[in-house]
Amino acid sequence: MAESQELSMDLPVIDLDVFLYKPRDSVEVQAECVKAANALITYGALVLHDSRVSEDDNTTFLDLLEDYFAQPEEDLKKDERPELSYQIGVTLENTEKPKCAVDEPCLNVIERLAPSERPLDIKGHEPDPKCRFFWRMVEAPPYETQFPGLNADNITPDAPHIKERWGPVMNQWGASMKNAVEGLTQMAAVGLGLPADTFKDAGRYGPHLLAPTASDLQKYGKVNTILAGFHTDLNFLTIHGRSRYPGLHIWARNTGKKIPVKIPQGNYLLVQAGKQLEHITGGLIKAGFHEVVVNESTVKVINDRKEKFPNRPLVRISSTFFWHLSSDYDLVPIPELKEKAKEVRAAQFNLGKDEGEEVEYPALKVGEQVSNELRHIALMVK
């Protein structure tokens, strides 16, 4: 955990290769696992190196999604499923609301930040001007789920120039990110003193989602435009490949600083903690806050791509994957982690870092937790 000195603004880099290819009981593996767990406790985020990940797969994926979201709105609407809370297929712009705009604990988090470190103002913020596509990457459970709406079948777009490429490209990149993040769940478990498969087994039948967002930079390309308002993710871990356009800011738990995200080129991914991980650790690991905005760096890349690729759509695609615990899993804080969370919270307070009101984490099914969060962001109508 953090000492009183200032923390680095650079996120820790965790090497999954050490865990995958060195003996599990080696000092090197154990140390890397502790480093991973501490990174999640301290920052709520980390950079993950996995030599199996191909930058070319990410590029192919970004090209496909740019082509998809460049289609007319009437074609995109065919892939909408509001009756399934938009948990499959497309969500069009100005649908999803940032929960923080109306959520008092979240507004209090913003209030505790220094004015220079706060996100762009979301109090009067309308729904996000971003689109999204959800493509499920799941292992079907050997039982009947209580939450079929969160476990629906995938939708493949009909457009001839997209349809044939869609499944293979989505599954290739989705599998790369899923394999990487599952390796990290094992590392984090070991680093927290748990059996390696604790989290991986709990998420074996999770409704994992390859979940790219798309922002039309022809329409929303002005500096200080909010593309995704200040929020946390409701799932267990979120993993990102590199986007072509900068603009993602994260807030590391123990710095109070806004960090512009830079993912190195090559076999690197960004991972952030979500609400399910916060819940199961009793708040030892906190879900990471983040926003996506248009900043000066975004505009520079927009102008650069206009010049170099004049025939390509100007769409900011996020290369995002949401890893979930299984919908029917009982989400209850692990007792030893809940106790450690209290110690960390007290240590933070003694360092002058007020984390606000203590949060209660009631026992409930993961599917209930997801449904509750979806209502907050206006995706679930019932």
List descriptors.
globular; 382 residues; four-stranded antiparallel β-sheet; nine-stranded mixed β-sheet; 11 helices
The helix content is 25-40%
Using only CA atoms, what is the Rg? 20 Å
Count of helix runs: 11
Strand content: 15-25%
Structural class: alpha+beta
Number of strands: 15
Largest sheet, in brief, is: 9 strands, mixed
Q: Unreliable segments (pLDDT under 50, ≥5 consecutive)?
A: 1-6
N-to-C series of helices and strands: EHHEHHEHEHHEEEEEEEHEHEEHEH
Q: How would the global form be characterised? A: globular
Calculate the terminal CA-CA distance, rounded to whole Å: 41 Å
Integer average pLDDT? 90
Pfam families: 2OG-FeII_Oxy (PF03171)
Keywords: Iron, Metal-binding, Oxidoreductase
InterPro entries: IPNS-like_FE2OG_OXY, IPNS-like_sf
Organism: Podospora pseudocomata
Short description:
Belongs to the iron/ascorbate-dependent oxidoreductase family. This is Isopenicillin N synthase-like Fe(2+) 2OG dioxygenase domain-containing protein. With 382 residues, the protein is an alpha+beta fold.
